[in-house]
Amino acid sequence: MRQLRWFLAAGLALSALQQQVLLQRPPQLRRLESSTVTSGPAALSAKFSRPMERASVAKTSQLEPALTHQWLGSGNLLRLLLDPGQTITAPLKVVLGGADQRGVALAQQQFWWDPRPWLVVVSPGPQGDQLELLGRDGHWRLLSEANGPITSVEPLGNGAGIAFSTSGGRTEETWLLELDQQATFASKPQSLVVKGIKRLLESPLTFSHFSSNRKGDLLIQWGAPGFARSFTSLIQANGQRRRLDLDASGTAQLLPGGGALIAPEADGLVLSNLPGHPPRRQFLPGSRDLSSVCPTGGRALLTRRWPDYRQSVELLEPGQPPKQLWIGLDAVMGTACERSGERIWLLLTHWDQATNSQTPRVVVMNRSGVVQTQRELKGWELEMRSGFALDPTRDVLLLALRNPKESLGRAAELQASTLALKVLDKPIKQAFWLPAQ
């Protein structure tokens, strides 16, 4: 009996000692996550092993170059948020320090952070089209080759891959190029790694359309020979697949934040939740399409078609009816917005029947629809299959332009405030941003 009491006492003493050791153990950095979905150019989320004293972290940590920023959050989840109005032109050196809420210091961490997206293009290759990426060193890198035309491309919203389809005449095949990349790294910048390529859908298809969200989920609308209807498949970031019962009259899009999609029906737009979320269906009447979603604030830009062939751009805000920002006879080819809509860009094109030519135009306005500046891109035409998207880290817009005298286009960067144009000297067919994660 005495021996049993001794063992119990020893066990309790050991447990108490272990508890004291754990209590005195310094905090550790567990995870870093980069994001450009912020009110500024980028943000970096940090998860620690213990609740941290935010003021201590803010005082001890440093950025180089010394971009102005603030620390938000509480407990063991803190977020470094860069202030608006700044641009990132090179990797940032981050020195992370501070103490936890017990006053125990974090061992100083030093690493590099590069939230800038990658430029990916579809260019002509020896056997067909190919995917290329513009490296940080300014050189182009081959990612994948196809045996025919690449008809559509969708970079995954989490940066883990690129979905694309290839045409074989009357049918298409769908592929996923799997990538490995890190926006934070210990020493020298890490190059993006191609892990492999795999087929997404087995059967030959008559058409396909992709959409992705920031979680890395992928929505595929597709048709197959012998079927009069279309099908919709959802491939989640964890690899799980679902067939969705979606009756859409056009292309559907996943909402960037995840959990929902928006699809056109015969007489309006429908917002519905994905499987695994509470059922929801919201209907907005009118001949409208979702054009783009603002990074914060739950706002979106819609394009609307009118019976007299005019088109308009509307701002959709939570709990409010759509607000018209612009209306005219020019075709709306794309839109983009900053933060919760503080700045909005419209990509328009005007067709001149007399000269049988088009003239693209970019209009910058605020959330009230007041035009701040605009520019005609004279001497250029738009490559129709390329997008129009903002890189908030460098404050530039990406589009694809073509000289009317040439058969191939060029990727072009438009400075978001001044609309200064920089055209890259490389023949391409499509151009996209690949998020850095």
Describe this protein's structure.
With 437 residues, the protein is mainly beta. The chain has a domain at 23-113: Sandwich (Immunoglobulin-like), CATH 2.60.40. The chain is built from two helices and 37 strands. The chain has helices at residues 2-24, 54-60; strands at 29-35, 43-48, 62-64, 69-74, 77-82, 92-96, 109-113, 118-124, 129-134, 140-145, 150-155, 161-167, 172-180, 184-185, 193-205, 207-212, 218-223, 231-235, 241-244, 253-254, 260-265, 268-273, 281-285, 288-293, 300-305, 311-316, 323-328, 331-338, 343-352, 357-365, 371-376, 381-382, 389-391, 396-402, 409-415, 421-428, 430-434. Strands 32, 33, 34, 35 and 36 form a five-stranded antiparallel sheet that branches. A four-stranded antiparallel sheet has the order 1-2-5-4, covered by helices on one side. The N and C termini lie far apart (61 Å).
How do the helices and strands line up, and which of them pair or pack?
Blueprint (H helix, E strand, L loop, with lengths): L1 H23 L4 E7 L7 E6 L5 H7 L1 E3 L4 E6 L2 E6 L9 E5 L12 E5 L4 E7 L4 E6 L5 E6 L4 E6 L5 E7 L4 E9 L3 E2 L7 E13 L1 E6 L5 E6 L7 E5 L5 E4 L8 E2 L5 E6 L2 E6 L7 E5 L2 E6 L6 E6 L5 E6 L6 E6 L2 E8 L4 E10 L4 E9 L5 E6 L4 E2 L6 E3 L4 E7 L6 E7 L5 E8 L1 E5 L3
Antiparallel strand pairs: 1-2, 2-5, 3-6, 4-5, 6-7, 7-14, 8-9, 8-37, 9-10, 11-12, 12-13, 13-15, 16-17, 17-18, 18-19, 20-21, 21-22, 22-23, 24-25, 25-26, 26-27, 28-29, 29-30, 30-31, 32-34, 33-34, 34-35, 35-36
Under CATH at level 1, the class of one domain stands as: Mainly Beta
How confident is the prediction overall: mean pLDDT? 92
Q: Give the strand content.
A: over 45%
Give the tally of β-strands.
Answer: 37
Round the Cα radius of gyration to an integer and report it. Answer: 25 Å
Distance between the termini: 61 Å
